[in-house]
């Protein structure tokens, strides 16, 4: 056999190595700014570690027991879940209903679709500034309107639950339209014959909504819930900006876990060890919920529900 | 595929779905919306538009008027431009923040599109060992809450002496799993193998093939991916707030600063909201159609 020329060899190397070379930026970046920091969080969490002073003594699980013993951790955990539930459940319901209204032969279809998506371009920080004024306890428009019809003002900042409602409203304002479009795309993939058959059988429109649309949307609903869980449990911007101090209120009534991480690490304590411990705990919570979601999805998939998309 | 059609819809218009489309038109009549649907959607749009209007009302007012009237007068005042001028001349480093936001968002968007297309080309069209497994890995990373690695990431940035520098925000976002996955999906269908082979037969190297064949084919999705990345970076707060701080802010960080230093003057804060939001609203007016199409093509949250 005659030997390959230098050029042929180069070309062969090109074919072999290029595929890996092209995907490598993602893997390198993920390793450096994703995986490594997460793993290293566990290491930091087992040390005394100061924002400026740096690494101190190994303390084992001390940071975890310290943090778990703090009432603030429990409060932050409660707030995070409360805000998450108040923003995800109504949002999914609203998004499905709006998508159902959009899934008709509308005039000026693009106008309506763009209209629902508009809030998505407002930064959460800006959304929070707007809504913290609307929801101000003393000088807010909402309480003034309530007062005008003779209802006592609500402590949108002073009451824990009301503050969670206000913060969830911001999240819903920004994301409902986005999720509406995801549901709309899934609805359009539902074969129209199903509706046709139901209508021929004399089913009312609301009936087809519950017996056809909702079941066919199930995989999409799960998808939206999973993605909003990962983001929702890490919520920071909206509650951080809900008042000027950014600590989550005098009793930390709307402080979330990510805000707590920030307060521990970059607040007065500058305690990176404890901040890392809370990060790691939140990570485990998110992973656990992810696994539960995954199990539910698998079960639904294997129970024979036909997927509406993909 | 740049039309605002979802892929399921597109599929219905060709091939064996075509017959179905004809029938669908007949059923379509029963799905013609009544005035109640229009009314409902109009209310939804009013609700999502109201906060914008409220912002403009306050931004065009003044602190004393706002303090006196919790319910603002429905007609905008005439202080909008003077309030914006005050935001610009306040000590939040407005021009620097605007420039930083533009730089970070543009560089991130271009970089994500480039690296995602490169990886998408490889995953969808090139053959190599471990391809399927690696792609599954990429998808799985989307479920990893990497934001929780901030403590070590901050330590790394401090070691690199990047605290307060834009690269600390740009570099971690230079390529995303979401982008790689989207491009892979798209190029799988949009880029025929014949084109790649033709280029290869002509003696083009792999990278030459990528530039001359894959990049042009990726253009419609590249535009949408760039938009999503741009919006994502422009509105990002948590990490820039931690790593840049007030010395070298992006616009959201500057807004936080504005709130902290001028919390008594809501006309000023709302004018800040206006200037920070206006650029994206303009982008939305021009390219919102693309965003809608992007989400509806089965895109996931980025």
Based on CA inertia axes, which overall geometry of chain A fits? flat
Number of strands of chain B: 0
The number of helical segments of chain A is 12
CATH superfamily of the domain at 91-296 in chain B: MetI-like
The share of residues in extended strands of chain A comes to under 5%
| Count of folded domains of chain A | 2
Can you summarize the main beta sheet of chain B? Answer: none
Structure notes:
Chain A is an all-alpha fold. Chain A has two domains: 6-58; 70-302, MetI-like (MetI-like fold), CATH 1.10.3720. Helix content of chain A is 70%, strand content 3%. A two-stranded antiparallel sheet of chain A has the order 1-2. In chain A, helix 11 runs antiparallel to helix 12. The radius of gyration of chain A is 25 Å and the shape is flat. In chain A, 44% of the residues are buried. By secondary structure, chain B is mainly alpha-helical. Chain B has a domain at 91-296: MetI-like (MetI-like fold). Helix content of chain B is 72%, strand content 0%. Chain B is built from 16 helices and no strands. Chain B has helices at residues 7-13, 17-28, 35-59, 63-68, 80-89, 94-125, 131-141, 150-159, 167-170, 177-190, 193-201, 206-217, 219-235, 238-243, 251-261, 266-296. Chain B is globular and about 75 Å long. Residues 1-29 of chain B have low confidence and may be disordered. Chains A and B meet through helix 1, helix 3, helix 4, helix 5 and helix 6 of A and helix 2, helix 3, helix 6, helix 7 and helix 8 of B.
